[in-house]
Design goal:
Layout (H helix, E strand, L loop, with lengths): L10 H14 L1 H6 L7 H20 L4 H16 L4 H9 L8 H6 L2 H13 L2 H22 L7 E4 L2 E4 L2 H27 L3 H25 L1 H6 L2 E2 L3 H6 L12 H24 L5 H23 L15 H14 L3 H21 L12
């Protein structure tokens, strides 16, 4: 089934979405092709709009400047007909902190085609995208506003989220909202029953938060080099702020961080299990997000001695990613095997911490 209204993109527009998805997120670019049309184009468009909001947040301009850009962005979500004028104004602005490709996406030459595609989307799915991308952008604005939550504090020259509530709030704004948006589009696309929709909505935030927290662990050292730590001050205080100097952390503290991610991934697994087998494209795509996250956290557990040190490196190999791709195909129509996969990873993570394992990553094959 497909959603109400007609949405088709030209070959040139499809190529544009594909090129820019690969520029901003190769991992998500791998996922999107598994989705049926037009869901693939809807989610690619929505994701690229989220990246526009990311670019505003990532710029090192002051808060007042960002606040104005966020207002303009919200205006374009409501009425993309003004994109030419707004992007021309953005093109005249300085965007410190962004890469060349990111800056190009903010100007009319590279950015305008995205807003034209967005304008073609039928009313119902466009309303879904507008609502959740708007929520994401508002959350990012709040993060930049020192007077609103999520709150950030400064420690040892780095900005930190203040407490666990702020940590979860940040992950909701930047990723939980995306989980909601994808879920609403999927419910509409497949015409899912009300009881299925209720189950999906119950765990869709955990999907987004789980993937975001996985990235926070993976990219901890890189983020710290930019002067930011998304792990909360409340937790870092327990480790005497050693991770802020990349001096490591107690094993129990590392396990606490990993266990929190595993809790989210467990709920994300329940999300996939609730999807009907008929939604084969989205089930496969969801597993292509979930399985690499599991393997990344397992790798973090096995390299626990390096975590939060100058040797912090948590990136799964290409062969592991290839195995995740094959496993996603194999598991798409087998809920029992998905459950088994998650349990095996969970046991392996626990065993790694109990044994203090330090070595190469383990690739788990269901069966």
């Amino acid at each position: 089934m497909t959603m109400p209204g007609s949405f088709e993109v030209t070959q040139r527009q499809a190529a544009y979405l594909n090129v820019w998805m690969n520029k901003v997120s190769r991992s998500f670019a791998i996922v999107v092709p598994w989705l049926e049309e037009p869901l693939n184009h809807l989610l690619a468009t929505a994701y690229l709009l989220c990246r526009v909001a990311d670019n505003i947040e990532d710029s090192t301009q002051p808060f007042a400047w960002k606040e104005q850009r966020f207002r303009e962005f919200q205006g374009l979500l409501a009425d993309p007909a003004h994109a030419g004028a707004v992007l021309s104004g953005w093109n005249a602005q300085s965007w410190p902190g962004l890469t060349r490709d990111e800056r190009a996406a903010m100007g009319p030459g590279r950015g305008l085609p995205l807003w034209r595609i967005y304008a073609l989307i039928p009313d119902e799915p466009r309303a879904i995208i507008r609502h959740w991308v708007s929520s994401l952008a508002e959350g990012m604005r709040q993060i930049e506003d020192p007077g609103q939550a999520p709150s950030m504090v400064s420690r040892n020259g780095a900005r930190l989220l203040a407490n666990v509530g702020d940590y979860n709030g940040y992950c909701y704004f930047v990723a939980g909202t995306v989980g909601h948006m994808a879920t609403e589009l999927v419910i509409q696309h497949y015409g899912l029953a009300d009881d299925v929709a209720v189950q999906l909505r119950a765990n869709c935030e955990a999907c987004g938060r789980g993937l975001q927290k996985t990235n926070i662990v993976k990219d901890y050292a890189k983020d710290l080099s930019r002067g930011i730590s998304y792990l909360p001050d409340e937790w870092l205080r327990e480790a005497d702020y050693a991770p802020l100097s990349l001096d490591g952390a107690p094993v129990a503290w590392k396990k606490k961080v990993i266990d929190d991610v595993m809790d989210e991934l467990r709920d994300a697994t329940d999300y996939v299990l609730a999807l009907p087998y008929s939604a084969v494209g989205y089930r496969t795509a969801s597993l292509l997000c979930l399985l690499p996250a599991y393997q990344t956290i397992l790798l973090a557990a096995e390299r626990q001695n390096e975590l939060f040190t100058s040797d912090h490196q948590v990136k799964i190999s290409r062969p592991t990613m290839a195995r995740c791709l094959q496993n996603a195909r194999d598991l798409a129509s087998d809920n029992e095997a998905i459950v088994l996969y998650g349990r095996r990873v969970e046991r392996a993570v626990g065993a790694a911490f109990e044994a203090g394992v330090q070595g190469s990553q383990t690739v788990l094959v269901p069966g």
